[in-house]
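Practice problem 4.
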């Protein structure tokens, strides 16, 4: 295995390209060219392709047959569709869970969000931690397929929000609103979760239209 420092080189290349995507260095729909990336990252073509495959699997990039990989398109239709899929998945994943189980599962990321708010943390960190709260909710379902599908949607949505992060936090809510969300269960939770995610979607779409 190629190693640089402690991290395997594939992991290092993956996190570097992921960081560039999150930093907004590539425009939506942009194809990533292999040649310059191989030079910039100082890795083999094989390593780069493995890293890009990982990012496709994570939802940070999409592959177009014969054309290569590109940053997913973050237009209004895509955001609307992503959020519809998240609503369906999150409601199904949390159905039947008790508020005690959900509160316990989300305790750590909610505390992290509260700490970020106190520090006035940056917008990317805010959006990322919001995503982690929802991932923790879905992980409570213990369904590997729901968890995987949800992680993919969450990452794609994060990429779609990147151009807006400069305008301020575009997370789905503050620590308090998440704490009250996970204190619900059954139909009340399903209804509140739908409203929570629809509100986020509307806020993103509103910012995009400016
Ligand atoms: Zn949220």
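Answer key:
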């Amino acid at each position: 295995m190629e190693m640089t420092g402690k991290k395997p080189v594939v992991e290092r290349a993956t996190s570097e390209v992921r960081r560039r995507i999150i930093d907004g260095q590539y425009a939506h729909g942009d194809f990533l060219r292999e040649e310059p990336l191989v030079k910039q990252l100082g890795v083999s073509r094989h390593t780069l392709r493995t890293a890009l495959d990982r990012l496709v699997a994570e939802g940070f990039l999409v592959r177009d047959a014969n054309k290569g990989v590109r940053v997913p398109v973050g237009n209004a239709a895509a955001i609307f569709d992503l959020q519809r899929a998240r609503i369906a998945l999150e409601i199904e994943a949390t159905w039947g869970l008790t508020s005690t189980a959900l509160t316990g599962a989300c305790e750590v990321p909610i505390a992290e969000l509260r700490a970020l708010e106190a520090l006035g943390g940056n917008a990317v960190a805010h959006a990322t931690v919001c995503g982690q709260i929802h991932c923790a909710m879905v992980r409570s379902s213990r369904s590997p397929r729901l968890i995987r599908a949800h992680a993919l949607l969450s990452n794609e949505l994060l990429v779609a929000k990147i151009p807006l992060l400069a305008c301020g936090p575009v997370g789905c809510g503050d620590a308090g609103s998440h704490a009250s969300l996970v204190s619900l269960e059954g139909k009340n939770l399903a209804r509140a979760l739908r409203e929570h995610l629809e509100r986020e979607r509307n806020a993103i779409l509103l910012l995009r239209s400016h």
